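FW: tagging you since you asked about this chain on Friday. Here's the raw sequence from the shared folder, copied in full. Didn't touch anything.
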Amino acid sequence: MQNRILLPGDVIPEATITLGAQKDPRVIGCGMVKRDDLIVANRPGLFREDGNKQWLRISSRKYWPQVGDLVLGIITGKQADAFKVDIGASEQATVSMLKFEGATKRNKPTLKEGDLIYGRVETANKHLEPELTCVDQEHRGRGLGGLTEGGYNFLVSLDIAHRLLFPQYPLLNLIGKDIKFEIAVGVNGRIWINAPTYKEIRAIRRMILESERTPVKELRDFVERSIAIMKGVAPAEPEPMDQN
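HL: got it, structure written out here
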């Protein structure tokens, strides 16, 4: 089954869950949805698994919202009590002004058109526009909310975004050994990074974009070489293009 190409509607036998029978059901990710007691593909992609985690590797940049997804969105407008947000889906999302940490009816967030936010998909229905939240069940942000303190955002393929969110993928930890930085990764293919200098931001962006064609076993050497280029002790290479 590993590396098999799946199409929307294909049933994934290895991910079939018999309710109440499994103590450790499989964790499903990008490209899969639960229907009754089955897991099916909801978009075309390459089946991948690691332990009890299963997902589809998708090269497309088109994003289909799913409940629980962490996304980066751009404020495109304001309603009476909500913001309109572009998350790269077919429909714009909304986020209530009360779904931010510390927000009240008298103290609403002061976000404006063009600002970037990091949120979680709270409602996803093909008949309704997606709804986001920037707080957890305790009404705490915990990293979610407006990203208005500088930084740089850019687009990547959905596959890169999901790789970066996978705990066992070592790229960000390897970069962090030499560069102090902040990052927010949206499964919708948008990434925000911030670092002390613009040179470091450019280097991180380069490594993320070029990681798509770098095997995992070569990542350590790849990062070391990229850091050397940033520090000027190795010849520079052509700058990769954003995946717009």
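FW: The domain at 69-147 is CATH 2.40.50.140 (OB fold (Dihydrolipoamide Acetyltransferase, E2P)).
HL: agreed, and Confidence is low (pLDDT under 50) at residues 16-21.
FW: great, closing this out.
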